[in-house]
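As a warm-up, study this chain.
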Amino acid sequence: MSDLYVLGLTGSIGMGKSTTAEMFRDAGIAVWDADAAVHELYTDHTETIEQIAELAPIAVTADGVNRDVLRDLLQADKTLFPQLEKIVHPAIRMHRQAFVDACKQHGLKLAVVDIPLLYETGAQEWLDGVLVVSVDSDTQRKRVMARKGMTEEVFKMISSKQLPDAEKRERADFIIETKTLDQTRADVHTLIKQLIGELPNA
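Now compare it with the structure written out below.
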């Protein structure tokens, strides 16, 4: 029987989720990244690429799925999004389960799964706990609008797919406010010690 604690990590766009995930990695914790998994599926997973080619032919090239083209198509045609989810979600679930199984086989005590749409997809049902990262709305907007290629319209589209920050915080088992890097790192270390009693890289 495995004693692995699977912690879900989530937060709205611009809240510092990716930075926080990296801090868990730096502390010696295994982290599964949903965005990285999607990138892998879009570049290396033949079945996923072929299905997307049927749905949106111009978004697929010899190198796989072009995410920028796909994003533009999703903005132009809202009916594409649920169709895309039916293709991507089952493949993502298999990818994630393989990660969790590997962590159990290696006898790890803690693993983090970084899932942007955690509550939106019901992932909290199978997790041992959920960590929500959060920051005030002004800081969030500054971070998001500083990203390359970001527009107000894209920000609104992404935000519309995400549960409001206040609701995420209300449902969370743990909350870290990502105000500064040093404070966030300290809070990550405190949480790891709380969950497994030690820092693997200490």
